Amino acid sequence: MIERERSYRGISARAAVGYLENLGGERVEDGIVEDRDGSWRASLSEEKVDVGPSLKLTEVTVAFEGESEDALDRLVEEFSQKAIRAGG
Fold it and tell me: Phi and psi (nearest 5°) for 58?
């Protein structure tokens, strides 16, 4: 199993789940989305982080797991493009 972990600021876990569903995933339980054919899985966590002395942002961390390195890298790239456009 191949793993990648990325953190994204300025988006919510709910939005992240939506992006993963648009990429072919299905929510199987709270904070976990799996590909409909079972080739990847993403686990999400969400927390508030300090950005400077008086600003907090939501940071979503996504732990991606998959069978194929190429397919997982493609998923992370496509998800990141959606998350970065939305969050920043």
Answer: -80, 135
Buried b (16+ CB within 10 A) or exposed e, 9-23: eebebebbbbbbeeb
Whole-angstrom distance, CA of residue 88 vs CA of residue 79: 14
pLDDT, tens digit, 9 for 90 and up, residues 1-23: 999 999 999 899 999 999 999 99
Record the tokens describing residue 14, joined without a space: 């709910």
Q: Say what the pTM is.
A: 0.90
Q: Is residue 19 within 8 Å of 85, Cβ to Cβ?
A: no
| Interatomic CA distance for residues 57 and 5, integer angstroms | 19
